[in-house]
Amino acid sequence: MRIVNDAEIEVQDREFVITRIFNAPKELVFKVWTEPEHIKNWWAPKPFIASRCEIDLRVGGEYAYTMRSAEGQEFPPYQGKFIEIVPNEKIVYSIDAFHQAEMWKARIGHRVGPEVDFSTLQSFVTVKFEDAGDNTTRLTFTQRLFNNDVRDAIVESGAVEGWASILQNFANELAKA
Question: In Å, what is the CA distance from 30 to each residue of 37, 109, 130?
Fold first, then answer.
């Protein structure tokens, strides 16, 4: 385990797990995590911004977040579907990387084996919101990937550090909420 921006990071079989404690009740943490007016302020790692945030928070609903660089470059949307939602407790959603197959091939294709089909590539995220006592919340973010080669390629590409940065942005947004 290592610590980045107050977040504990563990790389496990086919997944990585990031845990961080926030100084707010889980109802507020859940709200800031799920409402577009908040998401647009925290979702992208610095120096990027979230230039678009669309969310249909229901099982089967879709989301799409677009990231823009400081130079104005727009990146393909990060998108997927909600699989499970337990208000104030848990959210499970897909990251449908197949929508961005060419970008992912260019980014990680040389690091993964031939069994990875980029036209169907997905990962699944579980975000848990747990009362940690004294009006604090433990947020646990787990991203499960196709295999350990894909996990390693994603981790090596800086995704874990990106999420640690995003969680710092989230803490800042939470303090303003």
Answer: 13, 34, 10
